[in-house]
Amino acid sequence: MPKPPLTLYLAAPRGFCAGVDRAIRIVEMAIEKWGAPIYVRHEIVHNKYVVDGLRAKGAVFVEELDEVPDDRPVIFSAHGVAKSVPEAADRRNMVYVDATCPLVSKVHIEAERHHENGLQMVMIGHAGHPETIGTMGQLPEGEVLLVETAEDVATLAPRDPERLAYITQTTLSVDDTAGIVAALVARFPGITGPHKEDICYATTNRQAAVKAIAPKVEALLVIGAPNSSNSRRLVEVARSAGCRYAQLVGRAAEIDWRALEGVKAIGLTAGASAPEVLVDEVVAAFHERFAVTVETVETTRENVEFKVPRVLRQPA
Fold first, then answer.
1. Catalytic residue among 64, 112, 131, 254
2. I need a labelling partner for 76 at 20 to 30 A (CA). Which of 8, 149, 211, 292 fits?
3. CA-CA distance, 60 to 71, in Å (whole number)?
4. 259 and 235 in one domain?
5. Strand partners, 293
6. Average pLDDT over residues 162-174
7. What is the domain range of residue 234?
8. Sign of CA dihedral 133, 88, 78, 231
């Protein structure tokens, strides 16, 4: 029986961003330099396949610093940590490497600069997300007010409405964030915004590619982890752009094939912490069931690369 025809639209760019690639390299180079075990505070990036692969090489993932022995190196995840974490490591004379994405570090620096200028911060982000916790932890308690939705803006009670600045989590929906910023500016006309957009290039680019694909397809799959903010935002963007069926899948085994019966065109992308090997796995699974024509929809090209910390670089 012939396989049903299917056009598979592959988003480009998709998958690993420069910050994720750098963080993974940091863990691998640390294991090479110091030997196993290397401890990592929180998942280095939000992807089970990546975390399991690093665990097999000798990485031990923990949630808090007190789970790490004094005599073993520890790495802080790409999402960033509160200032109290490296301070605690210093008190214990621990060796640590900060794998915080440089674009998250940029937001940390912004927050500190505004604080030094006497401004109270408003952070647009998701409560409980490691990046939000880390960014809010750059300043003393009470100096950063969190908003998750435009509705939250109405209940903000700043110390001085005339002395405010805002920052954002780097992995948010571009469109949703624009609505929250508009609400902030409407209520606090003098609020100071970031010098340059806080939402990172990779988040923006992956969302733009999904928007380009969504009108062409009946379904769109996002490869990514349930705790990956940028991956979940891609699902939301696809639905907002008119795709009636958009789902997050960890890998090929999680695809609901019954939901895709009769579909002639499907979009496929991957969150910034999902490796290309998982994309290949999903494409292969479609080839097993359909007569697939693959089309790449490229909206931009990325050539960003971040250097690893000096302590891990080989001498020239």
1. 131
2. 149
3. 14
4. yes
5. 7
6. 94
7. 5-16+201-298
8. negative
